[in-house]
């Protein structure tokens, strides 16, 4: 089973295409949708939804995959549920990068402060990151500096932030899921 978390642009047709591509790894790909505007509500809703879905899961290695803001949630929700995560161009600090786009950016900072102390250290090697060198939205060099001590990083030379084509990375994602 793969849980897919969309980015801030929840209605992008690219989300469906990425889910289709992920079906080459596992035919059971489930969209976890959230509002993108209300972080505290989103976190509660995502935790409840994953717990509900896990009750009906017989996969010994479910995986969370998120892009952009979805990767922010995939890392945290995956950690809190003991699941591995794939973080594609993660928006690590939406409280800074999404000013003017969301109603309560300070809630992201509050979530970060209330999260388990040193959660990345405790989650070490349980996530893999795919970062675009051509990301037009985020500073992925800064993201790599923040994440590389904890997770392996794959660099993508050409794709933009929304990362439309996963095909090249599907074998690596599958190997990570099954490892």
Could you please describe the fold and organization of this structure?
- This protein has 179 residues and is an alpha/beta fold.
- It contains eight helices and six strands, in the order βαβαβαβαααβαβα.
- The chain has helices at residues 13-22, 39-54, 69-81, 94-97, 106-114, 119-122, 140-147, 170-178, and strands spanning 2-5, 29-32, 63-67, 84-88, 127-132, 153-156.
Briefly characterize the structure.
The chain has 179 residues and is an alpha/beta fold. It is built from eight helices and six strands; from the N terminus they run βαβαβαβαααβαβα.
Q: Over all CA atoms, what is the radius of gyration? A: 15 Å
Q: Hey, roughly how much beta strand do the residues contain? A: 15-25%
Low-confidence stretches: none
Put simply, the count of helices is 8
Through-space gap between termini: 15 Å
Q: Could you give a short account of the major beta sheet?
A: 6 strands, parallel
Q: How do the SSEs run, as a string of H and E?
A: EHEHEHEHHHEHEH
Mean pLDDT: 92
Mass-distribution shape? globular
Helix content estimate: 40-55%
Strand order in the largest sheet: 2-1-3-4-5-6
Q: Name the structural class.
A: alpha/beta
- Total number of β-strand segments? 6
List keywords for this structure.
179 residues, alpha/beta, six-stranded parallel sheet, 8 helices, 6 strands, 16% strand, globular
Helices and strands in order, then pairings?
Elements: E1 2-5, H1 13-22, E2 29-32, H2 39-54, E3 63-67, H3 69-81, E4 84-88, H4 94-97, H5 106-114, H6 119-122, E5 127-132, H7 140-147, E6 153-156, H8 170-178
Parallel strand pairs: 1-2, 1-3, 3-4, 4-5, 5-6
């Amino acid at each position: 089973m793969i849980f897919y978390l969309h980015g801030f642009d929840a209605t992008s047709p690219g989300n469906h295409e990425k889910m289709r591509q992920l079906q080459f790894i596992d035919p059971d790909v489930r969209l976890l949708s959230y509002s993108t505007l209300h972080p505290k509500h989103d976190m509660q809703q995502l935790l409840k939804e994953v717990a509900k879905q896990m009750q009906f899961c017989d996969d010994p290695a479910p995986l969370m995959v998120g892009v952009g803001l979805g990767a922010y949630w995939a890392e945290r929700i995956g950690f809190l549920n003991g699941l591995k995560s794939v973080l594609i161009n993660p928006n690590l600090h939406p409280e800074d990068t999404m000013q003017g786009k969301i109603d309560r950016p300070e809630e992201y900072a509050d979530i970060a402060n209330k999260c388990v102390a040193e959660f990345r250290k405790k989650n070490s090697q349980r996530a893999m990151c795919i970062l675009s060198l051509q990301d037009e939205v985020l500073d992925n060099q800064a993201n790599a500096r923040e994440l590389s001590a904890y997770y392996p990083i794959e660099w993508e030379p050409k794709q933009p932030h929304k990362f439309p084509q996963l095909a090249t990375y599907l074998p690596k994602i599958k190997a990570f899921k099954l490892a």
